[in-house]
Design a protein that fits this description.
homodimer, 226 residues, alpha/beta, Arc Repressor Mutant, subunit A, Rossmann fold
Chain lengths: 226, 226
């Protein structure tokens, strides 16, 4: 029973989890962690208590070696022959992904995409909250989405100085996206999520993620083409 | 020069590319192909003609062994010591992902997310076109988005029989998502893209992709937590 995982180790107390060599961890590894997390959430709802790495891998569409490798960056999980405790592994990945915190976000662009993102229930469930919305369209400014007022883009600098956020979300037209990114960088916002289909330039200290809505379609067309 | 890639091999003429063991290829491999494709598009616009696997890997945030492994499913790409021809590799991945075809889609849900998806420029550039939109909201039915009329959900079965689509996109509230999926399966639509945050049940012959908008945020919170 030497490899049995105890709760305290999983909850972030062990050294291995505190100091992974972060630069070696690719975005794809993190994305797989998100996938494992959703599957574990689903298993928990179905009252499953344990799962083998082989079954977890199957549900996620990867190999069990991949599952073990991804988790090995963060500690020693699971018990040989018994697999993983669903609730413990879920809690551990929640910690790893930073979902045990509250994250604040500023939204740029109050068009249909911005609206869909603002009201997206899944963000709140994960701990992500929009605290500011900016737009350049005079007909939108002053309107409220829940208790957040849509404010002019020109005020963003001052607003974000007085009330900073962790993450900026860019849902503007392509031609404004770089300006928004520049403003976020200037304000020291180091997490940027970009929905505009353009490659943005940001300094190394900023983390930029581009959401390309076409990628999931490309996965479908790949399989439908066969 | 034995390993030099000729255009005809890349364009789909070789046996290796025609018959990969498709079931062995994970969604993550396909997603990486999408990433390589965008980087190659970007390089092409910058007038780059060749790229090493090391540099391509770096731009995509993976190892060069991973790049070579992903491509090896589909053929023999690149020239030892010279790397890949940007235009040829881009063309090859375009074929692999099925982006050289025109794909038709039916949209379910004409809310703000549906609106954002319908008008998303990136889909059209990739060859994905919405030909039908359905909703249950009487105030939306009869309105037109470009030349597509929003029609009642109750008509979807008949409409899709008369004018089938390749892909169904679910942008409805959670509680309607499974009904839409059932209808799509019944109509023989084998590609389903689901934006509703719910695990849907579909038979094996259907390809279901869930788009979880929170996944990109989780990648940011992971890195911002360090």
């Amino acid at each position: 029973m030497q490899r049995k995982v105890t709760s305290s180790r999983l909850r972030g107390g062990n050294r291995a989890m505190a100091a992974p060599v972060i630069e070696k961890i690719s975005e794809f590894t993190v994305r797989r962690l998100s996938t494992y997390y959703r599957i574990l959430l689903d298993l928990e709802q179905k009252a499953a208590t344990t799962i083998s790495s082989a079954r977890l891998a199957e549900l996620c569409g990867v190999t069990s070696a991949q599952v073990r490798k991804d988790l090995s960056y963060f500690g020693n999980f699971g018990t040989r022959g018994l697999g993983y405790q669903v609730d413990e592994l879920k809690g551990a990945i929640e910690n790893i992904l930073g979902l045990n915190k509250r994250w604040t976000m500023a939204l740029f662009g109050a068009g249909s995409l911005g609206h869909a993102l603002f009201f997206h229930q899944g963000f709140r469930e994960d701990g992500f909250f929009f605290t500011h919305v900016f737009d350049t369209d005079g007909s939108k400014i002053g309107h409220k989405w829940e208790d957040v007022e849509i404010r002019p883009f020109g005020e963003a600098k001052a607003v974000l100085k007085a009330d900073p956020v962790d993450i900026g979300v860019i849902a503007t037209p392509v031609q404004s996206a770089q300006d928004v990114a520049n403003l976020l960088v200037e304000r020291g916002v180091h997490g940027i999520l970009n929905f505009a289909p353009r490659q943005l330039v940001v300094p190394k200290e900023a983390r930029l993620r581009n959401v390309n809505l076409a990628v999931a379609l490309e996965s479908l067309s790949f399989f439908l083409s066969r």
